[in-house]
Design a protein that fits this description.
The structure is a homodimer of 292-residue chains.
Chain A: E1 6-12, E2 17-23, E3 28-34, H1 46-56, E4 62-66, E5 80-81, H2 86-91, E6 94-97, E7 101-103, E8 107-109, E9 115-117, H3 120-129, E10 138-141, E11 146-152, E12 155-162, H4 164-174, H5 189-199, H6 204-216, H7 224-241, E13 249-253, H8 255-267, E14 272-276, H9 277-289
Parallel strand pairs in A: 1-4, 4-7, 5-8, 10-13, 13-14
Antiparallel strand pairs in A: 1-2, 2-3, 6-7, 8-9, 10-11, 11-12
Chain lengths: 292, 292
């Protein structure tokens, strides 16, 4: 079978994966998602796992992206250096089975600030391919390791990763603030207060302890979880906006995170275009397939 | 027995305690330290624990300071608000047994930036009492929750707590950086590179992920643990120096942490006077005892 008769796209991350079957018309014919992230696959087990996916979808060819190409995944694929567009990524696909099973490489930045990504590059190029954003847009992709991506002439020109989501999870699970950060996070008044402080360049080390101090002194803000999230995301957005002056900003990713980052971007007075992360992923894979 | 015939001073923290017996001449007659922090004492067990300490030291009166006065300790004592000097603290000692067993209150700041301390106030007043620092000095007290204390007319005028030590421990134990932060931390070149970035106002969220990216790209700095520590401490010192213009700075605490903060302060071009934390604690307790 050839790619034009349909293919399978897999977004395979650290803790979960999502499988999309694409038919000969380019439509999504089936989707499955589960928590079989790369860490859940035993050593040497990827070939069988991928064979299982292909068997479910009539032996169609497969493109895999994300942490599957990391040193914890199936095959460690070399990063493509910036600037990287669809052509550079397609040419550097690692073929486990030539023309039939490929892994999309990640993108690295070695000059200036060192940085790496695996998976977000497909979504960035997909957001561009749909026409939602322009060839020189600034993309914000929230997540455990949030990415700010400055597109340049339709390629990934530069980017910066923020440990925002992971740091919030660490504080929530393991820090002295844990009992206070237990609640849900929404873009409420406490979130906006935290985001305003972050956007203004508040010092994180003292502002975080301040959450504890206000609690002890009965000066709490209602939702400490929202405030802490707002503080970190505001700080993230402040640094991310430094990367690039483009307007509007493409906000690509999960809807719950888009709501939070969108609120912080609005507070910063910036326009944005929201793009669903799954749609961007599929469009990015399609752009690569068209170059095969 | 009365205080002038000798007493016992206990610095009782979350995870350890240190007990000092002071003789009638004001000299240290005995010291014990162990890991029986407040969390290691069962509910209702503090009276017996303190009775045990007194029994070992001829029934001398006892002053306790630190987290023993928190809601996780023996008796939750009310904070004394800033500005707070030895007179205010001595007057607010919580007497579990009148005149014989007292708990030194912590200090709070409710106006402006909310903040709290328990234990460091004794060291700050002690550093002043020894004459090592002046009545309007800026004190830096490194630790899990580092304190910057602006003295004003011999009292604690204002202060700011930084989550520096706790955040480093979280990153080292639980984050994606954990495998890289495993090594020892010293004031080496990597530490100074990190401290310079922190002092210059580097964005922590991206600089921390950059440690991971540099490792993945084989652009490591030798000691990632030292670099990360330097980055956090440099950021801490940058914000702490904002509090107060006093020169030199009193650097009070453990010798290993003084070495790191001292290197960052030197990089910032600031003079400092180092004061051992245990000596400052004893001088602070003595200053309170003299007011009883």
């Amino acid at each position: 079978m050839h790619w034009r008769d349909g293919y399978v796209a897999v977004d395979w991350g650290t803790t979960n994966r999502r499988v999309y079957a694409i038919d000969g018309e380019g439509r999504v014919a089936g989707t499955t998602g589960d928590d079989v992230g790369i860490l859940a696959v035993p050593a040497g087990g990827f070939a069988a796992a991928v064979a299982g996916i292909r068997a479910r979808f009539a032996g169609r060819p497969v493109l895999l992206a994300g942490m599957i190409g990391s040193n914890r995944g199936w095959v460690e694929t070399a990063y493509v250096g910036c600037p990287a567009g669809a052509a550079e990524l397609a040419a550097a696909i690692h073929w486990v089975e030539p023309g039939a099973v490929g892994i999309v490489p990640g993108v690295s930045q070695s000059e200036g600030r060192a940085d790496v990504m695996r998976g977000e590059e497909v979504q960035a190029l997909g957001a561009l391919a749909t026409g939602a954003i322009g060839p020189d847009a600034l993309i914000c992709h929230p997540g455990t390791h949030a990415k700010w991506i400055a597109m340049a002439g339709g390629r990934i020109g530069a980017f910066r990763t923020m440990m925002t989501g992971e740091l919030f999870a660490l504080l929530r699970q393991h820090s002295i603030l844990a009992p206070q950060l237990d609640g849900p996070v929404t873009a409420d008044d406490a979130f906006l207060e935290g985001a305003a402080a972050g956007l203004a360049g508040a010092d994180l080390l003292s502002e975080l302890f301040g959450i504890r101090a206000r609690h002890v002194l009965d000066l709490g803000r209602g939702s400490d979880a929202s405030y802490a999230s707002g503080l970190l995301i505001g700080s993230d957005v402040r640094a991310g906006l430094d990367l690039h002056r483009a307007e509007p900003i493409g906000l690509v990713g999960r809807s719950d995170l888009r709501a939070l980052y969108g609120a912080a971007l609005a507070l910063a007075g910036r326009d944005m275009i929201e793009v669903d992360g799954a749609e961007a992923f599929l469009a990015g894979i399609r752009a690569l397939v068209e170059l095969l």
